[in-house]
Design a protein that fits this description.
25% of the residues lie in helices and 34% in strands. It is built from 14 helices and 32 strands. The strands form six sheets. It has an eight-stranded antiparallel sheet with strand order 10-9-14-7-8-13-11-12. Strand 16 and strand 17 form a beta hairpin. Bound molecules: guanosine-5'-triphosphate. It catalyses: GTP + H2O = GDP + phosphate + H(+). Belongs to the TRAFAC class translation factor GTPase superfamily. Classic translation factor GTPase family. LepA subfamily. Belongs to the GTP-binding elongation factor family. LepA subfamily. Keywords: Cell membrane, Elongation factor, GTP-binding, Hydrolase, Membrane, Nucleotide-binding, Protein biosynthesis.
Length: 599
């Protein structure tokens, strides 16, 4: 019964306890038995469980017997909390009518609490504030409820107090979902309109779109059409999400959340965000309101073994299906050979993609330092986008370089405002606004995106003892005095190591990088000079001294097992190395720029 369906998401600042609460909801609705219950059930990717964060949004259908005696169908769509994955949050939100906005009772409102709140508000969703982790000794539930009222304008009286850990208050949450979140609209006899909010790739069944039925219905045997490509397929099976499995059903009706198999083989035939309809009775319009995923950070990904190029391409194609925000195109590097320039939503996203490629596809990769996209106006008046720092033309051909800016919001207890402003100044930020909200301060700055890409979040956390939080959005391009710094290893420029920096910082960053490279490049049979240069001018230099002894020399006369161990260690060390000219360069070297700027 459609009126007893409730579709909702859980949104929160990172670590405020979404996944734990989702687990408890699963358990209390008996979706999984206590025996089956394992921590963070919805985080099905191995990587997610290991890192303790949610990367992919996942959906599950639950049944709840409410106090009014009726059984309700809940579709819970879990969302990730990290700022890189805002896109997944917005996709999840398009598929629901309401959200639980979870706020940690010991941390209070944080930057992404606010950002997610606005996202939910834009969708005009019902928002149920949940003050979570009330079991913690440091919990201040009432203060936090008042903060929610003050900062977000949600009445403190509407807050539900709960602990995902102990289960306290979780029943109140379930009752609030029934009482406050509206049943989905949509008519069974209207032309079918289904929103693809996610998809996975299955080796046997091809692309499996995850859909939210907005209008009409869908059943096996239907001929479907994908709106933007006009491609048609026959539906094999439809079904719903049960914990840990895809459960087939006879049909999907309006308001339901489920999956479709239709032997969609070609990657790209059923993209996330697209609308699925029936070929013989199509809907008039696609479902609107999707925020397209736009990569903002680019990095090169290369196989350590050049033979693996095709396998890497296949892996990227498969991964892209499961990760709509990833983009890639072939790239050649003099230093690294054939690989791909990949676009990501942020640094964490880049790291996760690399890790998934290595684990799920068993590839050995070298990644270059992620960089933002620069725009250049050339002296002949033409404009170009720079996705790879090594492509920046020489200064005589450049009229102006533009760098992307973000509006950065930092939310912090007032005692840390001084050091945070200093940090922002160092990052070339300009203050746009500063507002006191109780004992907290909201700082709004306009900052070059490239400046906050690498270490900003870590430094913000460390100078505020973990209390400050941040969120950002892109606000366009501004002209900057930017230069390309080339890095030469053994007198040879290495394109994959080049980076772009503000002219006032180029010297110090160049210095730091050659020093760092001097540390991480292992000694070779000969001395290796490492240099940083702007144009033809060398600005910094370091030397990797020549190797004096063979590693095995130490074992002369020693026992054989030790010798073996050393050889193994050496082999291990060889992995993820790339020969540049005659020099073996390890993965770390390509990421040296990431560790600059730390004190
Ligand atoms: N004491 C207490 N700890 C909790 C509670 N809920 C979650 N935690 C802990 O808080 C940490 C974060 O919880 P998660 O559920 O992973 O948080 P999350 O918001 O899902 O995190 P992301 O998926 O990374 O966004 C974990 O160490 C949990 O054990 C709670 O109600 N009480």
């Amino acid at each position: 019964m459609q009126e007893r369906i409730r579709n909702f998401s859980i949104i929160a600042h990172v670590d405020h306890g979404k996944s734990t609460l989702a687990d408890r909801i699963l358990q209390m609705t008996k979706a999984v038995s206590d025996r089956e219950m394992r921590e963070q059930f919805l985080d099905s990717l191995e990587l997610e469980r290991e890192r303790g964060i949610t990367i992919k949004a996942s959906a599950v259908r639950l049944f709840y017997q409410a106090k009014d005696g009726q059984t309700y169908t809940f579709n819970l769509i879990d969302t990730p909390g990290h700022v890189d994955f805002g896109y997944e949050v917005s996709r999840a939100l398009a598929a629901v009518e309401g959200v639980l906005l979870v706020v940690d009772a010991s941390q209070g409102v944080e930057a992404q609490t606010i950002a997610n709140f606005y996202l939910a508000q834009e969708h005009q969703h019902t928002i149920i504030p949940v003050i979570n982790k009330i079991d913690l000794p440091g919990a201040q539930p009432l203060e936090v409820a008042l903060e929610v009222e003050e900062v977000l304008g949600l009445p403190a009286d509407d807050c539900v107090f709960a602990s995902g850990k102990t289960g306290q208050g979780v029943e109140d949450i379930l009752e609030a979902i029934v009482a406050k979140i509206p049943a989905p609209a949509g008519q069974p006899h209207n032309p079918t309109q289904a929103l693809i909010f996610d998809s996975i790739f299955d080796a046997y069944q091809g692309v499996i779109p995850y859909v939210r039925m907005m209008e009409g219905s869908l059943k096996p045997g239907d001929r479907i059409r994908i709106w933007s490509t006009a491609k048609e397929f026959n539906v094999d099976r439809v079904g719903v999400f049960r914990p840990g499995q895809l459960e087939p059903t006879s049909s999907l009706g309006p308001g339901e959340v489920g999956w479709v198999t239709a032997r969609i083989n070609a990657i790209g035939d059923a993209q996330v965000g697209d609308t699925l309809t029936l070929a013989d009775n199509p809907c008039a319009e696609p479902y609107p309101g999707f925020k397209p995923a736009k990569p903002v950070v680019f990095a090169g990904i290369y196989p350590t073994d050049t033979q693996e190029y095709n396998r890497l391409r296949e892996a990227l194609e498969k991964l892209k299906l499961n990760d709509a925000a990833l983009s890639f195109e072939p790239e050649t590097s003099e230093a690294l050979g054939f690989g791909f320039r990949c676009g990501f939503l942020g640094l964490l996203h880049a790291e996760i993609v690399q890790e998934r490629l290595e684990r799920e596809f068993d590839l050995d990769l070298i990644a270059t330092a992620p960089s933002v996209i620069y725009r250049v106006t050339l002296t002949d008046g033409s404009q170009t986008e720079i996705h790879n720092p090594s492509e920046l033309p020489t200064s005589d051909r450049i009229q102006a370089v533009y760098e992307p800016y973000v509006k950065l919001t930092v939310y912090t207890p007032e005692e840390y405002v001084g050091p945070i402003m200093q940090l922002l100044q160092e990052k070339r930020g300009k203050m746009a606004n500063m507002e006191y909200i109780g004992k907290r301060v909201e700082l709004v700055y306009e900052v070059p995106f490239g400046e906050i890409l690498y270490d900003f979040h870590d430094r913000l956390k460390s100078i505020s003892r973990g209390y400050a939080s941040m969120d950002y959005e892109q606000i366009g391009y501004r002209e900057g005095e930017l230069v390309k710094v080339s890095i030469l290893v053994n007198e040879e420029p290495v394109d994959a190591l080049a980076f772009i920096a503000h002219k006032d910082k180029a010297y110090s960053v160049g210095r730091e990088i050659v020093d760092k490279l001097g540390e991480v490049i292992p000694r070779q049979q000969f001395a290796v000079p490492i240099q940083a240069a702007i144009g033809g001018k060398i600005i910094a230099r370091a030397t990797v001294k020549a190797l004096r002894k063979d590693v095995l020399a130490k074992c002369y006369g020693g026992d054989i097992s030790r010798k073996k161990k050393l050889l193994e260690k050496q082999k291990e060390g060889k992995k993820r190395m790339k020969s540049i000219g005659k020099v073996e360069v390890p993965q770390e070297a390509f990421l040296a720029v990431l560790s600059t700027g730390k004190e």
